[in-house]
Amino acid sequence: MYYGVVVIIGRVNVGKSTILNKFIRKKLSITSHKICTTKTNIVGIYNTSNCQIVFIDTPGVNTKMINTNYVYKYYNNIHNVDIILLVVSNYWTKYEELILNYLKKVNKPILLVINKIDFFKKKSNLLPYLSYLNKKHKFVDIVPICARKNHDVNILLKVIHNYIPYGKPRFPSYIITNQSYKFILSELIREKIISFLNKELPYTIKVKILYINKLRNIYNISAVIYVKNNSQKNIIIGNNGFLIKKINFYATRNIEMFLNKKVNLILSIKFNY
Fold first, then answer.
1. Domain check: are 99 and 22 in the same one?
2. 83 and 127: one domain?
3. Contacts with 105 (C-beta within 8 Å, 6 or more apart), sequence order
4. 43 and 152 in one domain?
5. Is residue 46 a contact partner of residue 38, using CB atoms and an 8 Å limit?
6. Residue 173 belongs to some domain of the structure
7. Confidence at residue 35, expressed as pLDDT on a 0 to 100 scale
């Protein structure tokens, strides 16, 4: 058997969470075009008949996060991983430079993943970028993919397999994450709030699952959206309750896809957390 730990690192909006979800084939890590969607490390566990890989999706790096406190908080266990996936998109920025400079000190194999290659209109346009990246560091490999369209994600998995050592699995084969169901469901709801609200609001709100009751083939789920003030509450409710109904509808669909069961979701809004 093989067992290994892989950390997924990169700046905001390069598709780290989408990559994790494609590996696990479940929405564990929420996605959005807005920055700071992932606020904590998300663990996904990939299983085959002879291999278990623990993937750790980390929050994306932006201007406010490039400091030692951020690195310590989210990357402090990086010395215990077997391989680092450094995810970039179709262009290299100062954030990749800063991340790479830190990773070089860790002395772990770094696999560079170029996501969103669909942004290159011609494959020939990708070649100069590959050449440029190849000079940045002695990466163990460079794999171009498009996670959103599921292009070459399986190739990336095969490459990762090459660096997974022999070892005994730490988790039962039926487990896909060490996160609680309540945490995952609260994140699925938060994703829809982020999708439908103005960018200044989502990062101050939190979602908490109060209870999950299964009655026959239906999950009854009650959740609270915590806000700071009445203004935020009114924004989430929307005109005649339109927005909260919309959030509820699409969050329910999200949760039903995750649980593979019918869901009755009840949302309420309260102040503070």
1. yes
2. yes
3. none
4. yes
5. no
6. no
7. 47
Query: What is the reported pTM?
Result: 0.81
pLDDT band at 218 (very low <50, low <70, confident <90, very high): very high
Contacting residues for 146 by C-beta, under 8 A, at least 6 apart: 115, 116, 117, 118, 152
DSSP 8-state symbol, 165: P
Q: Does the residue 166 lie in any domain?
A: no
What length does the chain have?
Answer: 273
102 and 206, same domain (yes or no)? no
pLDDT in tens, 167-208: 999 999 888 888 888 888 998 998 888 888 866 565 668 899
Count structural domains, the chain.
Answer: 2
Domain encompassing residue 195: 181-271
Query: What CA–CA distance (Å, rounded) separates 226 from 206?
Result: 5
Q: What is the CATH number of the domain that holds 235?
A: 3.30.300.20
For residues 199 and 13, the answer to whether their CB atoms sit within 8 Å is: no
Please choose, from the candidates 232, 157, 159, the residue with its C-alpha nearest in 3D space to the C-alpha of residue 193: 232
Taking only the tens place, the pLDDT of each residue in 112-140 is 999 999 888 777 788 999 999 999 999 99
pLDDT tens sequence across 224-250: 999 888 888 888 898 898 999 999 999
